[in-house]
Amino acid sequence: MHDLGTFVVTVFMGFFAMMNPIANTAVFVGMTASKSPQETRKIAFKALFCAFCIVAVFCLLGKGIFSLFGITLPALRLAGGILVFLVGYHMLQGKQSKIHSHQEATQTAVQIEEDEGDIAISPLALPILAGPGTLATAMNYSASGDITHILVTIAAFAVLCVITFVCFIAGPQLVEKIGEGGISIVTRIMGLILTVIGMQMLIQGVHDAVMLFGPTAS
After folding, report:
1. How many domains in the chain?
2. DSSP H helical segments within 70-170, as ranges?
3. Domain assignment of residue 159, given as a range
């Protein structure tokens, strides 16, 4: 029970740090500034629902994807660890990784809005909410194929989506109260958490690779 509780907290904090609802709220407010409250609520729900579906699919089909492409779990943890570490490192420096680039996504959103496109799908759902780092985190925690781990990973992301939805709806008031300085501090803290999670994934990946391919493997 203790191990399961630790796993639940670890998964939730990993997703929370990667998605960073506070910083993403500022991005969301900027993208939907010209929208009515009803349109804003609709965009927020659609973006988060799409992000949840994407992550859930990767969690459920992760093991099948591995089998299809001949990917081993240590390889995922090593690659995912590097990816998560890089995202966290850039956040720790007060910058945005190109993997989850808010500035680029905002420019894309402006272009999409001009073309009467749907910003809920792109760039909100992809790549801001369910970007490569988020997917790597999800697959790392659910890749063992254990049904409990898969369900916990999906449930943790669902809870985070609800929290993010509330933040998006209360976006203008939240951004006004926290301010740029507060958002910067939260981003750096989330970056620190992500770098630690990324390093832990790397260590686990190296350990698993040694166990799988080392001299004693056979």
Report:
1. 1
2. 73-92, 102-114, 132-142, 147-169
3. 2-213
